[in-house]
Amino acid sequence: MGQPGPDGRAGIDAALVRRLIAAQFPQWSDLPVAPVEVDGWDNRTYRLGDDMTVRLPTAAGYVPAVAKEDEWLPRLAPALPVAVPPVLATGEPGEGYPFPWSVRGWLPGETADRARVDDMPRFAASVAGFVRALHDCDTTGGPVGGEHSFWRGASPAHYDEDTRRFLTALAGHVDTARAAAVWEAALASRFDGTPVWFHGDIAVGNLLVVDGDLAAVIDFGTSGIGDPACDLVIAWTLFSGASRDAFRAAVDLDDGTWARARGWALWKALLVMAMSLDTDPERAAANERVIDEVLADHDRLG
User: Fold this and answer.
1) Rounded to 5°, angle at Cα 58 from 57 and 62
2) Helix, strand, coil proportions of the chain in percent (round to 5)?
3) Which of 17, 65, 23, 66 shows the shortest CA–CA distance to 45?
4) Which of 13, 112, 199, 220 is most buried by a 10 A CB count?
5) Can you tell me whether residue 43 is helix, strand or coil?
6) 143: alpha, beta or left, given left = phi > 0 and alpha = psi -120 to 50?
7) What are phi and psi of 113, to 5 degrees?
8) Which residues are CB-contacts of 119 (< 8 A; sequence separation ≥ 6)?
9) C-alpha closest to that of 207 among 218, 197, 196, 199
10) Rounded to an integer, what distance in angstroms lies between the CA atom of residue 112 and that of residue 90?
11) Do 113 and 187 contact (CB within 8 A), yes or no?
């Protein structure tokens, strides 16, 4: 997920997808179209028959991901230990829809969830293995982290003003003094290593599980070349205890990278909590738990 913005989903529906397919890819026009069970924010996704998906960006800020995935997913796929979305076709604006869109191969599996994984430390090590393999991919000509990645791969300092505003807004709801210390530690840590490929959104909705094991990683819209810290956020959003320790050991990155990763996790959790505090208490509580985990991790490891 990039960053919450105006909801561009109005007008994107299965009927639009059918019209786009009929106009641009008539060979697939007889296939059924249906929304996926778990959808994302940056794109609306629909099943196209049994073996394909159609993804439509919901706003202009998410459009660069279409061409980026078209170019780089086929290059990255052979070096990765699990499946990534096969690129099948790219559609053009039409039928009243203003953006390019994509057709990808369907990948089986369910989104990652603690209830679907029997051995969470083993699963954490598998996710770390994917992260390491991605970081080892050839970066020649790759897109440097910036606006197209919502600044993943760059310094979390890009979101300094936002983070401090959220801290003020959430005073009394979170321990803002400890949270500010985590944020300052993230800003103080500078990335001076060799830039690597990062995914940018290693999250439960982008990890597919089959029989309890990692089977695929999807949605490379925020990927690019830069600081790998953003790929560690799942340590607090999914993992805990032994599984977090297993992930940390297997991904094998330095303390400074982990300090920046805590900053990324804190920024996102503060943002979502601030947005949902009055409208979605359950979502706010889930992000408060992430904040608590990040603060405790900082206190323990510094």
Assistant:
1) 55
2) 50, 15, 35
3) 17
4) 199
5) strand
6) beta
7) -155, 145
8) 212
9) 218
10) 28
11) no
In 3D space, the residue among 194, 261, 190, 272 whose CA is nearest the CA of residue 230 turns out to be 261
Per-residue pLDDT of 133-181, as tens digits, reads: 999 999 999 999 999 999 999 999 999 999 999 999 999 999 999 999 9
Structure tokens at 270: 């503060």
* pTM flag (> 0.90): yes
| HSE, side-chain direction, 13 A CA sphere, residue 110 | 8
What gap in Å lies between CA 247 and CA 234, rounded to an integer?
9
- Specify the 3-state DSSP secondary structure of 91: strand
Domains, the chain, with CATH or none: 14-105 (3.30.200.20), 110-301 (3.90.1200.10)
Residue tagged 């995914």 (tokens): 199
Residue 225 in contact with residue 139, Cβ under 8 Å?
yes
The CA distances from residue 127 to 34, 123, 209, 211, in Å, are: 29, 6, 11, 15
